[in-house]
Design goal:
The protein is mainly α and 292 residues long. The chain has a single domain, classed as Orthogonal Bundle (MetI-like fold). The protein has twelve helices and no strands. The longest helix is centred in the middle third of the chain and has 37 residues.
């Protein structure tokens, strides 16, 4: 197959996937569209946002919705819409980054555990059981208080803590396919353990991995929002939806409820959209769920 033919085949496969997504999973298509819009806004926040994230106009303090400030202004005269757009960048970076770390950790632990079994699996799973028995929020706050506040710290802490727990799901998926014919055939022809795991196990457990990814993106965004709300997240000068809820949203909620309303709406919409899009991708890519 030439490079041109391979490229054409991939193009047709992508086009077919998009068509089936819109036809069979309309909620997933809407969720994917919302995620792409938020991702675009986050990447190009400097261009899309009407104001800088910390640009203040004291005369516009607590201003209502108008042509100048579409969603109003906060207690310092900063445009709420602009801060929400910059907050989308923070939330999506943390969500996607922490989820990538989660999937990597879960796969690294779960695949060898389910593949080798025996004493190796028993010892490793007792460590996992002990870890997930600890209160997630307490461990999260403890580690963040030690490591300090910052985006990289949040991504690593959330990713590693979530990945250890999700490794049990990956392990279960590996155990479920260990007796399949293609798995036994790979062992019969002398395939090494590393090759078997890379070429025959991981591709066949992509369905649960996709589900883990879609679920964890939303939970990671909520975890960052919770940390920022409790004062353990990003520095105060960095606009995040959780920080907006914790700061001006909580302090001035009686005077201007929209300061807490809009960040809460953004969190709800993005988490719901990510979950719907992830479920749709999983249903379309899993051969067992494609139907006729």
């Amino acid at each position: 197959m030439t490079l041109l033919e391979a490229g054409t085949k991939r193009h047709h496969a992508l086009a077919d996937f998009v068509v089936r997504l819109g036809r069979d999973k309309p909620l997933g298509a809407i969720g994917g569209t919302i995620v792409l819009v938020l991702l675009f806004c986050g990447i190009f926040a400097d261009v899309v946002a009407p104001y800088e994230m910390d640009e203040m106009e004291i005369l516009d303090r607590f201003a209502g919705a108008s042509s100048k400030h579409l969603l109003g202004a906060d207690q310092a005269g900063r445009d709420i819409l602009s801060r929400l757009i910059y907050g989308a960048r923070v939330s999506l970076i943390v969500g996607l980054g922490a989820t990538t770390v989660t999937v990597a950790i879960a796969t690294t632990i779960g695949v060898p555990s389910g593949y080798f079994g025996g004493k190796f699996d028993i010892i490793l799973q007792r460590f996992v059981d002990a870890w997930i028995s600890l209160p997630f929020l307490l461990i999260l706050l403890t580690i963040m208080s030690i490591m300090g506040r910052g985006m990289l710290q949040i991504i690593l802490v959330i990713g590693v803590l979530s990945g250890i727990g999700w490794s049990r799901v990956v392990r279960s998926a590996v155990i479920g396919i260990k007796e399949n014919d293609y798995f036994l055939a790979a062992k019969a022809i002398g395939s090494t353990d590393a090759t078997t795991m890379r070429r025959h196990i991981i591709p066949n457990i992509m369905a649960p991995i996709i589900v883990i990814y879609s679920i964890t993106v939303g939970s990671s965004i909520l975890a960052e929002a919770g940390l920022s709300f409790l004062g353990f997240g990003l520095p105060f000068e960095v606009p995040s939806w959780g920080g907006m809820l914790s700061g001006e949203g909580r302090r001035y909620i009686d005077m201007k409820p929209t300061l807490a309303l809009w960040p809460g709406v953004c969190l709800t919409v993005v988490v719901y959209s990510v979950n719907m899009f992830g479920d749709a991708i999983r249903d379309l890519l899993d051969p067992r769920l494609r139907g006729g």
